[in-house]
Amino acid sequence: MAMEYESNNWIWDGVYYYPHLFGGLMLTAALLGLSTSYFGGIGLLPSSCVWSDLGIFHKKKREKKRIRVYMDGCFDLMHYGHANALRQAKALGDELVVGVVSDEEIIANKGPPVLPMEERLALVSGLKWVDQVIANAPYAITEQFMNSLFNEHKIDYIIHGDDPCLLPDGTDAYALAKKAGRYKQIKRTEGVSSTDIVGRILSSVKDSKGVGDNNGTHSKGGSGEKHQSQRGQISRFLPTSRRIVQFSNGQGPGPNARVVYIDGAFDLFHAGHVEILKKARQLGDFLLVGIHTDHIVSEHRGMPYPVMHVHERSLSVLACRYVDEVIIGAPWEVTKDMITTFNISLAVHGTVAESNSLLPGETDPYAVPKSMGIYRLLESPKSIITSSVAQRIVANHEAYMKRNAKKMQSEKKYYEEKTYVAGE
Question: How far apart, in whole angstroms, are the C-alpha atoms of residue 321 and residue 145?
């Protein structure tokens, strides 16, 4: 019997790899009353045994090796382009491991980072597509580090965008990964880069003679056209409904869900935003985030804000793992109708925020939820605000202008020579 079983290994292999096909053949044979000896001497088993065995095969097939992919970066001034790159990387595998380049490596290869390692780690860890983070990753994939990725972290593929990443000596930072045959490429997200954001801030500062301190000393933004003319560099980002769908969870709150609402500009999305969103999400089952319009932000904060326009800010917030849904262009005031429409159970606001001055005739934007007893002030875990991030660039503007001058040349060349690349 054992020898007979061994002689029919090819059949069992077939059942394992093609369970539907062989199951169908055996069932057909049974219905037609044919002898199953035709199939190599496999005795006709009770149907319960057949289906239970096939269930085992299916289970084994489902337990295939999970593909682990690795992508690294500086992730300085984290933006929706970074998030989209990591979203694409995650789609190439089952688990995404992200390496965050050390401060020292960034200084040596690109110039001073705006955000220190701690803040960049918080931003990357807060993204919904990231499964694991490796701190202080090298800027270039060395042979030693690559072997560590393959052997210790069980990485199958190393991912990078289609834009070239060159070391100071002009060599490809991913040459070894490509040579090893373990490299995959994704499409660069058009319209934004950390260099671009720094450039926007520096241009706005140059135009307005300094970043506003939110005390009303700078002129308030008027019309949208006036606001755009004062912003210096204009965003190249072209928002599409498909990109919003890609970033969205695609699910609404359940019928009895506790919906928590928090609003703001969320400009230059930073670690302080991540931490307050995490804290707000812990208070309910569904976190709804209101993103104020460019006009509202400009009116209350003055120039040069917002640095990022409303669709850019919305995508950055949507990419956060603690956010379930956003309102793009949320009103300044939380109204009774809005609370009813979205079934809001609790409206919250952080203790650390930009100093938004009320316009003439304006009242407390949270007056309604306060009167209903559904408002709570949350202690902000971090003291970071958007203007303090911008001020870091202003305070060290000479270093960033020097860094950007070189990077902007390569950006200009990229846009002049770019061709269509299929991808997500």
Answer: 29
